[in-house]
Amino acid sequence: MAALPKKDVVIVGYGAAAGPVSLELAAAGYSVVVLERGPHLTTERDFQTGSFDSLRWAVRQEMVPGADIMPLTFRNRADQVAIPAPYRMASAVGGSSIHWSGQSWRFYEDDFRLRSTLAAAYGKSGLAYHLAADGAALADWPLAYRELEPFYDKVEYHIGIGGWPGNIAGAIRPLRSDEGNPFEAPRQRDYPFRPLRDNATDLVFRGAALALGLKPFHVPTAITTEDWTSPYGISRNACTYCSYCMNYGCWNGSKGSSLVALLPAALKSGNFELRANAHVLRVNHRNGRAVSVTYIDGEGREQEQRGDIFILAAYSFQNVRLLLHSGIDGNGQVGKYFINRPEFHVSATFDDRYLNGYAGPSVQRQAIDDFNGENAAEEKLRLGPDRFFVRGAAICSASQRLPLETYNDVPPDVPRWGAGYKAYLSKYLNRYLRVLAIAEPMPYEDCFIDLDPTHKDKYGVPAARVTRAVKTNELRMCRFIYDKIAALYRAAGAAKIWGRRDAIAVASMVHDCGGLRMGVEPDSSATNRYGQLWTMPNLFVAGGALMPTMSGHNPTETIWALSYWQSAAILEKKLDLTDARRV
User: Fold this and answer.
1) From CA 155, how far away is CA 106, in angstroms rounded?
2) Which residues are catalytic?
3) Contact 221, 363 (CB under 8 A)
4) Rounded to whole angstroms, how far apart are CA atoms 152 and 164?
5) How far apart are CA 232 and CA 155, in angstroms?
6) Residues 422 and 267 sit within 8 Å (Cβ to Cβ)
7) Which residue, among 511, 512, 510, 544, has the nearest Cα to 527 in the 3D structure?
8) For residues 406 and 402, what is the distance between their CA atoms, to the nearest angstrom?
9) Which residues pair with 228 in a beta bridge?
């Protein structure tokens, strides 16, 4: 195996985490090569002709790798034997930014200082004792919202996010008194275009929220609602409101992704090389520095790619797995503090109206943030010590309820087969509503990713093993949010309400973060504030794995913003490639 010509920057994976940093470095003159495990699907070849296929994309999940490529195992406790678990994220050029829903939130200001926020709010009350009892590993981020805000702005204007502003420089709902998230962190300017329009589901949700005295708003979306050209010169068409969005590649190029919003500009730089179907096996290192990566190319040949700077921008599981398999444990910090959302749900049907929930993109949504973060702190304090919890969830209406994606969510008194089941679907398929809750999980000492000693992929690399259990705070939170959603349904006139009130833990809940926590000290984090490994300063991590804590919002816009943040740090020499402590 001969080593390939050396590059300035070698990036593993090409999804949301890789898109901005690879483009910015290539545009600045660095020679960049990206090694993406999946195929290079395109709008014209793959999605314009084959997108409207629920069986192919949503049920059989053709973009999601199988266990022979990306094995994943799961257990609740470290004394249990892990069992195989489904992996949910796309493996293709563009990654999961291809098949995501498109909801694009900024995090709150206090999401970046969770430990300090909770200590100030509840430290003297003693109500948060359950967090310590469950081993919560709370932390503040090593950067503040104000530092990341310019990069959020760049995401919104360069990738394309539509919405109504809720807070421009402290002015709340500055354009419309009934639109924009009044709880959002301050932004410097308006969105570049407006969000998706309302459908029947949204109007029912909004009416119920207003009836309860809440503050509904359109969810911001990375979907162009007008023909739009970005500062990169990339033009995209306005959304046509088809129903094949989440779990699908966009046939029209309207949904923002690294594939359609960033890759064309990177290729134009002349310094960017993309190698699809390149399965990276390990990072080779010597004397505390990464020197190359070994990968299997599309022809099945083993290759070695050398470089000066290495960036692991795959999904959280794979970044951790690759480091551990390469013998890089970051002072024992690699894999710790894994965070993903607890799973629970609430559904309803209506006798007096059709909702036609199948119509439109999944993220054609209204939302409320009244119970997210610490926005409902006073109400939570009244719950008493046995029900009190910290943080909360965004609550959203949701569309794209296509038959093959909703057929199995039926009330407990309805049979799952036969005449009764058929009668239920005939009457209620278009009278059905399932509200989405984005619940914020906490990091814990005993929630982590490591290597499974038994399960391996076809190349002999051990599977990523997730150890994760639902803790007291998540159980209390989800019960509270369940009841709030049920109240919304009742205010809307629902005939029947059902669901799972007690949350469960799963290996992958789509928003899977942590495992490579950024921080200020090597004894409590894997990387510094720029994602640079403390123990290997020319090796970086990008993506959700860096997050010390989560949010009650989708993480994708923050992942894109962090990628821009990292590229700026490299280009502006804010870090030292020989010593990660010098920042």
Assistant:
1) 10
2) 511
3) yes
4) 15
5) 12
6) no
7) 544
8) 6
9) 236
Paired tokens of 385: 């010590």
Q: What are phi and psi of 273, to 5 degrees?
A: -125, 130
- Cβ neighbours of residue 448 closer than 8 Å, sequence gap 6 or more: 335, 336, 337, 338, 466, 467, 515
Contact 92, 40 (CB under 8 A): yes
Cβ neighbourhood burial of 247 (10 Å; 0-12, 13-18, 19+):
buried
pTM exceeding 0.90: yes
Q: How many CB atoms lie within 10 A of CB 332?
A: 10
Please report how the helices 200-211 and 472-492 are oriented relative to each other, as an axis angle in degrees rounded to 10.
100
- Residue-level pLDDT at 90: 93
Yes or no: say if 562 and 523 are a contact pair by the CB < 8 Å rule: no
Backbone angles phi, psi at 448, to 5 degrees: -155, 170
Q: Exposure string (b/e) for 25-63, b if CB count within 10 Å is 16 or more?
A: bbbeebbbbbbbbbebbbbeebbeeebeebeebbeebbb
Contact 192, 164 (CB under 8 A): no
| Phi, psi for 202 (deg, rounded to 5) | -65, -40
Residue among 325, 440, 463 at smallest CA distance from 371? 440
Task: Report the Cα–Cα distance between both ends of the chain, in Å, rounded.
Answer: 37
Instruction: Please give the biggest Cα pair distance in the chain.
Output: 70
Rounded Cα distance between 119 and 134, Å, is 16
Contact 361, 399 (CB under 8 A): yes
Structure tokens at 315: 């999904």
What is the DSSP code string of 302-370?
EEEEEEEEEEE-S-HHHHHHHHHHTT--TTTTTTBS-EE--EEEEEEE-SS----TTSS-TT--EEE-T
Q: Domains (ranges, CATH) in the chain? A: 1-49+85-161+248-340+511-583 (3.50.50.60)
Asked whether the beta carbons of 503 and 441 are under 8 A apart, the reply is no
Q: How many CB atoms lie within 10 A of CB 377?
A: 12
Cβ atoms of 527 and 533 within 8 Å: the answer is: yes
SS3 content of the chain, % helix, strand, coil (to 5): 25, 20, 50
pLDDT value for 383: 95
CA gap 219, 105 in Å, rounded: 8
Alpha helices in 51-103 (DSSP H): 54
Sort 304 into a burial class: Cβ within 10 Å, 0-12 / 13-18 / 19+: middle
Query: Which of 266, 334, 258, 274 lies closest to 539 in space, CA to CA?
Result: 334
**Which residues of the chain fall below pLDDT 70?**
1-2
Helices (H), 101-172: 114-122, 129-133, 145-155
* Residues 214, 1: Cα–Cα separation, whole Å: 63
Task: State the amino acid at position 488 in one-letter form.
Answer: L
Locate 372 and state its tokens.
């997210």
Task: Report phi then psi at 71, rounded to 5.
Answer: -70, 145
